[in-house]
Amino acid sequence: MKLWLCSSAVLVSLTLLSGCGGGGTSGGSTPNTGTTPGTGTTTPTTPNWVAGQYAAESTLQNFCAAPRTGTDPFSGAAYPDKAGTAMHEKLWQRSWSNRTYLWYKELPDLDPANYSTLAYFDLLKSGNKTDSGAQKDNFHFYQDTAEYKKQTQSAVSSGYGIEWIFASTRPPRQLSVAYTEPGSPAATASLGRGSKLLEVDGVDFVNDNTQDGVNKLNAALFPAKAGESHQFTFADANGVRRSYTLVSADVSTVPVHNVKVLQSGNKKVGYLQFNTHIAAAQPQLISAVEQFRTAAVNELVVDLRYNGGGLLALASQFGYMVSGPNQIQSRYFDKLQFNDKYPTTDPETGQPLQPTPFYPERIDYNVGALLKGQTLPNLSLNRIFVLTTDNTCSASEAFINALRGVDVEVIQIGGKTCGKPYGFYPTDNCGTTYFTIQFSGSNAKGFGDYADGFTPAVAPRFAADIKGCPVADDLSKPLGDAQEGMLKTALFYAGNNSCPVLTAAQQAAAQQATLAAAPLQSDGLAIRDPRQQEFLQQNLLRTEIRD
Length: 547
Fold this sequence. Notes:
The chain is α+β, with helices and mostly antiparallel strands.
């Protein structure tokens, strides 16, 4: 029996269906080959674009303008690249998108000759909007394959260990520290939550509007490798100006922080900060749940405010650990739907579509297999609190939606979530890993319409409204502090079954938190859009779990 799920931490070799890609021969029939003069290398003839005709992907994939050579250090296999052209790469993107993109009928059919390879991919997405007027597809990305595998397979990335909060990417810019990874350069330097960036390597971060200055800012904020030294000046949460020398390092992501049991009146409340759904979180979540069981907690607060997603299977496991089999009663976690070319089968594997269950056992994410006999602990709760912001995305939203689908009462504290009931297979071609929306998900009650996000509401009116309290993210207190705004509100609600009365200023901030996040403005003098820099956390990716 095959069980299909989404995964950002496990990469599997996916065999594309033979003959896929639609009709037409121009630009995609098996290319003729010839020998490049002076090289002895056989290269295919450059294919041509013909409007409305889509070549089979197999005739285009791995034909690269700059083929990699040698062995992939992550898989141990030789790179599949063959000598090709940029037109091969662009026409592969086009055929792949036409076959698998969820809204393929909304794709423009543009001549690739007019665009660079990556610029062309940027255009292969729907231009339509949601009911609220937001862009329908905000999750169309690509990443260097080596960097992607480094982040997903080892949970390591080069940087300072800072989770940033971006408010503005162009002058007057605003960038604050949300938290730091334990043991990272930023944590070692005691860089505190809520610190606002003022200056980088002598460049005024807030106001500099020169190309040279912006280049320096980008180079320092997003170091290409470990060992880079840069000077940063911040104003801490109290407004005190502080300077730091930070040296980039390969930083390991710690998915679960601040596991603790708090006393609220006569109730014991478990709290954990859950930052990303990667395989490394599995033992940490199990440990946290076992700690909460030993303490006999009455309530649970899951802090998802900076959790952009990842492994759907892990979200499923955590859903089981929260609710347990008596609450779930054999209902499924999530059901996926692909485009209308594939109503009953998975377009990448050809396997019949089956709902993702609430996985009750540990999973070996290295091989994608359930570990029979290793049953997960559970808390048997029928109510939980989730702390959210617009950075709460994808698998985190699926977790919320799935629990609601099995009648767990979810109380939402914070702000509107990002709105991503979608996912995709990461697909590598010629050293770039591409992500295009390929499926949507719904819970056991058939609900998945939250493209504009889940919104906390004292009196819910719409299907994507969740009972709870709008609260702004409180950067003045450490995460896990009982006096931090969101957690304090959750603890109050746990004891009183209602939201606390807010001051006028708190009400205004809370109202702002429930509004859809404005698109980050970007132009030639803007620092990099962090939604592209940190898109990896917003992925629901697919792999196979063996029962």
